[in-house]
Amino acid sequence: MSIAPAPIASSPTATVPTAADVAGPMPRGFYRLIAAQFCSALADNALLIVTIALLQARGLPGWLAPMLKFSSTLSYVLLAPWVGPLADAVPKARLMAWTNGLKAVALLGLMLGLNPLLCFGLLGCGAAAYAPAKYGLVTELVPAQRLVAANGWIEVSVVGAVLLGTVLGGLLVSDAAQGFATSVMAWLSPPHALWPALALLLMVYGGSGLLNLGLPDSGARYPAASRRPSQLLKEFVAANSLLWRDPLGGLSLAVTTLFWGVGATLQFAVLRWAVDALGLSLSQAATLQAAVAVGVVFGAAAAGRFIALAQARRVLPVGIVLGLGIALAAGLPSRTAALPMLALIGAIGGLLVVPMNALLQHRGQQLLSAGRSIAVQNFNENLSILLMLAGYAGLLALDIQILPLMRLLGCVTAMLVLLLMLRQRLRPMPAAAPEPDAARPQPAR
Q: Rg of the chain's alpha carbons, rounded to an integer?
């Protein structure tokens, strides 16, 4: 595979999408895709809360909780060279349905008492293949001028799933729910009292799979990839290097990589902070995660509505505000004070990541292909998650208090975004203009 950068369009007329481009209807099947990935993400996030409760019921140490995310995320990193070509080689809707089946198998493993880290590793394998198929299909179906709006829809639905999934998980592990389960099935021991919750999530995965099977084929076709794993690995390394070296691709990839690493760490830090500093139960702590998710929904919706692809780089300063907000939130004294602050942090995050994600998808497709570019993106973002979660789990194992950890996380985030802004000023940047849709992959004849 020869990997060479495509030219960056810089025509002034290309930077200003028409009203029809910005406000027209989404292509056929787009909203069904949103519904399918909403169901899958809903089950993923509820399952995380339920599995943390399962760890507690089994008397396992608390530092294993972030290792659940670590285990699933490791699959994204290890499988990245192969899932991109796989997503380009088969109909993406069919692949998404298959991966939901793999997630269901992982959930059944939890019900049968298998090692939770092993089950989450299998869950991660399904998610690693799902992501390039989902985002690749969006990039193929949606015109370039509407990618920010499409990503706004995706981010709102994903974060809505995080919100509802976290709340659902909190409800499923509440004393009332587990008491009801044991009263109906008196033979259930404490760990098995979570079986009804796992069975419900299994049905949600099934619903997502059925929605995926009804998605349209975009018609985009790509050259056949090598069947040799070593050659695919070599091509992936070249693709990764190409995207990082590109001015627009490298900038947007750096921002999204930082954002998702920080976001994954914050997900666990907020739970720990709520329990240790605010004295909340796990079920109550889940509502603080929900506040972040509500904020992201509003921030993502605003970005999709008001920010064009050509303006994506203008949101960088909000990343500094995001980091400072995380550092300040650590000192809040109560749940009442924390809820609005965490919602604001979420809104700032949504406003930052949606335009950057759209810019990265657009430029990645120009340089590579829909599936390969998303696989590169997932590799870097999830490697960031792995490293940050490993560091977070290690610091917890050393009995470092959660308050200084959250302040450190916020300050490092603000500093890194500031460095990216300074680097952008020193490095010439082309206009973030979408190329004509004629450059997009065309249906096979």
A: 21
